[in-house]
Structure formats: structure tokens, C-alpha cells
């Protein structure tokens, strides 16, 4: 009798072990949304985008903010969301901007968030700013915290970006607000970092540099008593010397 009970117990134990083994062999389903973050590749510094109406005739400006998906493309359009952080950085009011619906179009992992801003009189004397953060949506998680934020600024003033190596190589060895205004007016560009240089290459950049230089030389020849000088920066009061 005792042997019979042990035998039944052994059968039950073996069945439970087999059941557990089957349970463990079942793969666990894994569901995770793709994440959306700001793409800093065209930013000024770590996470800033500047826009100026300087040299632009339009009355409604379009600020384009690149975003990137951490995940795979899909055939359908996907919606992402951003929120305005109202802290010491943001000083723009709701009437100063319109944030378009964020969409990553089908087949893409990179797309653009568009903010439309009207050219108003206050932009002559003020720089308006928004501090934005991506947030979760039905299609996306927010992504890593280090890439969730971006600062956007706009004005009708000369918001000079970092006067980097490409500015120093092709336009002027030293930057200033006056030099930057001339750069914008003569080239139609607002920055000249690596991403801006690539489409032009060496030859094209030299052509832009010569436009910048020709403007300065023509002005100085016509206005010998009022030549173009740096209005701020380390060389304030000194002549703007073009590289080409």
C-alpha cells in the first residue's frame, strides 16, 4: 500500500514538473512602442534652434524642428505630441506661435515638427522663446530623458549662432552681430555649420564668402567715412575683414 501511494505521488510530481516545463518554454510576449526624441544634429549647442526673420520677406515664419524615432518605420502615419514647459525659459504667449500637429509620415524614422510664428512688432526688440518637451502619445513613448527637450527662439533681430569654423574659414575670422547681418543678407542663410557647408562644398562656400566680401568692399568704397565695423564681440569697433 505504501508503495502504491509513493507511486501515485511520483506520477503527480512528474506531471507538475512537465507542466512547469511547458509553461517555461512558452515565449513571453514583448510589446513596446517606438520612442520619439528631438534630433539635435542641426541645433545650436546641445538643444537649441534659433530663427530670425532677418533677410526674410514672409510675414509668417516656419520653424522646423527635426525629430527622430528610436524604433522601426511603419507604413502608416504616426502622431507624436509635445508640450510647452512654462518656466524661466519660455516667454512667448500663446498668440505668438502655433505648434502644428506632430506627424512621422509612413515609411520614415525622421520627420519635422513645424511651429509657425507671425512677424510682429515686438520681434524688433524682443527674442521670444519656447521650451518644449516630447511626451507620450498613442504611437510613441517619450524616449530618453536627455533628448526630450529643445529650446526654440525667434526674433526679427540678428540671433547669431555660434561663429564656428566654417564662418571663420569662409567669411570672417571674428564674428559679431553686424557681420552676421551681412552674412544673412548676402547669402540668404542663417547658419553655416557642417550641415550647411556640405551642400555647397569648398567651391560653393568660397562663392558665398566672396558675396560677403564683395558687399563689404562695395560699402566701404562708397562710404569711406563709415566703413563696416564689428558692433560687438571681441573686435568691437574694428573693421570687418572678409576672408574672400
UniProtKB/TrEMBL annotation:
Which InterPro entries does the record match to this protein?
DUF4843 (IPR032299)
Tell me the domain of life.
Bacteria
Q: What is this protein called?
A: DUF4843 domain-containing protein
Where does this protein come from, organism-wise?
A: Sphingobacterium tenebrionis
